[in-house]
Amino acid sequence: xxxxxxxxxxxxxxxxxxxxxxxxxxxxxxxxxxxxxxxxxxxxxxxxxxxxxxxxxxxxxxxxxxxxxxxxxxxxxxxxxxxxxxxxxxxxxxxxxxxxxxxxxxxxxxxxxxxxxxxxxxxxxxxxxxxxxxxxxxxxxxxxxxxxxxxxxxxxxxxxxxxxxxxxxxxxxxxxxxxxxxxxxxxxxxxxxxxxxxxxxxxxxxxxxxxxxxxxxxxxxxxxxxxxxxxxxxxxxxxxxxxxxxxxxxxxxxxxxxxxxxxxxxxxxxxxxxxxxxxxxxxxxxxxxxxxxxxxxxxxxxxxxxxxxxxxxxxxxxxxxxxxxxxxxxxxxxxxxxxxxxxxxxxxxxxxxxxxxxxxxxxxxxxxxxxxxxxxxxxxxxxxxxxxxxxxxxxxxxxxxxxxxxxxxxxxxxxxxxxxxxxxxxxxxxxxxxxxxxxxxxxxxxxxxxxxxxxxxxxxxxxxxxxxxxxxxxxxxxxxxxxxxxxxxxxxxxxxxxxxxxxxxxxxxxxxxxxxxxxxxxxxxxxxxxxxxxxxxxxxxxxxxxxxxxxxxxxxxxxxxxxxxxxxxxxxxxxxxxxxxxxxxxxxxxxx
Amino acid sequence: xxxxxxxxxxxxxxxxxxxxxxxxxxxxxxxxxxxxxxxxxxxxxxxxxxxxxxxxxxxxxxxxxxxxxxxxxxxxxxxxxxxxxxxxxxxxxxxxxxxxxxxxxxxxxxxxxxxxxxxxxxxxxxxxxxxxxxxxxxxxxxxxxxxxxxxxxxxxxxxxxxxxxxxxxxxxxxxxxxxxxxxxxxxxxxxxxxxxxxxxxxxxxxxxxxxxxxxxxxxxxxxxxxxxxxxxxxxxxxxxxxxxxxxxxxxxxxxxxxxxxxxxxxxxxxxxxxxxxxxxxxxxxxxxxxxxxxxxxxxxxxxxxxxxxxxxxxxxxxxxxxxxxxxxxxxxxxxxxxxxxxxxxxxxxxxxxxxxxxxxxxxxxxxxx
Lengths: 592, 369
Description:
The complex is a heterodimer of chains A (592) and B (369). By secondary structure, chain A is mostly helical. Chain A has helices at residues 2-19, 23-26, 29-60, 72-79, 81-114, 120-128, 135-146, 155-158, 170-194, 198-206, 211-222, 224-240, 243-248, 255-265, 269-300, 314-343, 367-398, 403-414, 421-433, 455-465, 467-479, 485-491, 496-507, 509-525, 541-550, 554-585, 587-590, and strands spanning 344-346, 350-353, 436-439, 442-445. Chain A has 2 domains: 36-60 and 366-592, MetI-like (MetI-like fold, Orthogonal Bundle), CATH 1.10.3720.10; 80-354, MetI-like (MetI-like fold, Orthogonal Bundle). Chain A contains 27 helices and 4 strands. Chain A has a two-stranded antiparallel ribbon with strand order 1-2. A two-stranded antiparallel sheet of chain A has the order 3-4. In chain A, strand 1 and strand 2 form a beta hairpin. Chain A is globular. Chain B is α+β, with helices and mostly antiparallel strands and 369 residues long. Chain B contains 9 helices and 19 strands. Chain B has helices at 46-54, 96-105, 111-124, 140-153, 170-187, 198-204, 222-227, 232-237, 336-341, and strands at residues 6-17, 20-31, 35-39, 61-66, 69-70, 81-85, 158-162, 190-195, 207-212, 215-220, 242-251, 254-257, 260-263, 278-283, 299-309, 313-320, 329-335, 349-353, 360-363. In chain B, a hairpin with a 2-residue loop joins strand 11 (242-251) and strand 12 (254-257). The interface between A and B is large, with 42 and 50 residues.
């Protein structure tokens, strides 16, 4: 008698509800826990992001003794021709890189998204290669190809007539940065090119438009937001990068290397802060423009469009196959050259292959202890970063308390996109190294000072540096979940924490693993932020690459880069295998 | 109002978003075991009302009382309500069984109790033997059954359905309509369903609450709502309605309409209007009668201007012959059989009968949609 059973239970339940009446029936513990967590998130963002950046701004207005000097440093900066030239150089490099990487990336992305050429999976993997390497390696590989004793310059060690392209300077920087920004452009443009409505093309064809006309009236307008986004992202990346100009810049100074020279070379912290602000402003403008564009893009994309399935077209496909294999091949040759160089005994005189440079004895930088420190740091960053990012995205996306604070947290979570690594690194030294502050005549000791020159500060710095992209990944995954999961759970009296563990995390596991991989790979490769923060007893692999290259031990630097790339590729493969495993196990509930 | 027979009482509830009043001054109550349907066009505030009852939104004014307990400040978890959403909101990574057991597990029920209860619920919603499947392996109708079972598992005192059938195919929708209603009657659980589908409301509910722009405009049985719509809005939202504007009241019960005098039975408040007032007269197309069996009063001569075939019936567009003003139009729904029998064709003259007890009168101030 199922009905009888249910009826009695309903009666007892309502009786129980009546007993429940009173004060505790009104208190909602969950709401308070959520409020508390949101406040904690805002405080955390305040300490790791807002205060350090504020400290940097204050530093740029103060002399080395801490006295307020107003805009004196800025006036000095803009009156100093050398420094001002760097600003111009950075802009030139960024504009050229943006044009090249978005231009090359568009063709590549078009081939991946809109044609049926052979080996698209492999081509996409090849295009992503630069993501796994420190940008220093791009510079190093360039030197082995186009440097004074490079493969191309010497014509394959004298077999052919050589060509010297004058790699040291803007040429080298632009090539290295283009390589660095290329995968980002491809990623953004592939998504933009896939987010299209096949019916638009059918309509255009039925109206008798030529392929060229369709390209200009349908394809390009359709991806204009993606294109703009790619432009802004590539601009920020190349404008703020430190690694490549450090290696191939020669006498061509850019802002990022200026900060390094001012702070590490001349111990001029105030001027370092000023250059940081100068570096920050264009990046911030590009970031704001990008956010505005993104908002328009979301609004303009209709939910019910028919996906465009590319059809074979021999002439077009042959052209794009040729193009992609050319570009992809160039990327592969680039990194193969670096691998080769790391294995050669004495470039270019003794071409015997071996692990000569992989013992790191007789060179600075820290050798394998640096490498293992980097592994440890990246693992911690991946673990903590993923946990914090996902929790932050969850609190912002899935709770309904404290609307204003959640808006603030959302904004702060995206802000790191605009913060160059150099700026974060410098801001962190200023903030965490400060012994305390004079606030209204009272000295307040810095409660975070103990973090300085620990593993913790490196991890924290990485988490903040790579926060935004991870946060957006988590937010996208959470947005795809039904808004009512939390509601349904609450109506059944299930605590939100249980739903978080049993439903939210399992459903978002692919995104969570992706975030973890992203943190690991970037923490391994980054040099710009951590170069200010590592300490002598905590050497790091990427910093070792910079230092060994500085000392002229290019082959060792190259070998260390190879270790970083190898670790990253390994982690990427593990990620691929684990997501494949999850997909197999959860096939039942993922297939529709 | 707080008798033990009242399961839900909503008293003068209002909700504001900034200066925009999503709901204002809504009051109604539900007896134990009653099935209420909240009906209205999209954006009228009906879902907001349901969410206020559930405790998913906090209201700005008034009280919500469930089982005699004022729950106005309580969160959803303390209101003992079951909710079913249009999107089903089934957890994709849990099987149907585990979805249904979800709320039971945290109530400290033993494993055996849970198994027995889940089996019972699967039976109840006609899903026996499907418990191992995941939501993505079930059809929309099956998913909604699981969602229903899940909401019933924790024995709620009140069941809230938010457009539960809107995402389903027409056929499944019809089937589930009947099943949900039967289940609700068997369990005797007080139920509030939000819908924008008038047919759903008419066929399922004991009582219908019509909401327009955040206000409750009519609260009555499906019969009341259909036959005696309180306002032109209700009349046009539920079913079709002919509105004849610019009619004039001659005296109580008699109205002038395009040069003809018609008698009106139910005055619908227009008795208060003085003779000479401008009014709108309304009649449903299926109440416009043709043929010889008509009475003698309220006959209006018309011409058929167009005919629309609708399978079982035709909709005729009629132009009323009128001395004063032309262009007065009426729609009439006539059985196809009758159209054949009377050989009705376009352009032919056709006297129609407007039964005096099927005409409605609305004051001229009540503009209709």
